[in-house]
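Hi R.,

Here's the chain you asked about this morning:
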Amino acid sequence: MSLLDQPFLPPDDMPEYHRPFWEALKSHVLTVQACEHGHLRFIPTEICQHCGSENWTWRPVSGRGTIYSYTVVHRGPTPAYQKNAPYVIAYVDLEEGPRMISNLVGCAPADARIGMPVEVVFEDMSPEWTLYKFKPAQT
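And the predicted structure, written out as tokens:
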């Protein structure tokens, strides 16, 4: 069995404080961390980078935002990625504030634009693993 034929599973060494994010994705809910003082953040960390708080929860967010920046990948780093090239990787500023990175789907790479309104979509890779991506927002 090649690597491309293996099931898509979460990594065994995922930090425990990341697990609630991935569990929420399985229910098609996008979440970010919120410290006790209301600072929102993504990528998950154990300590708030704004105030140093170690007390936080997960908060659902709308999944709506705009493209801050993006790149078009024409040559994937591995065969698994190359089969989808060219594809867009975008930094998205969520309406709630945090910035997230993921693929932009649902449009040609040449149509991607900074400032483009986007919304989250979910891709179920397996029963154990769901990815979030962004697509152009319906207007």
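Helices lie at 19-26, 79-82.

Let me know if you need anything else.
M.
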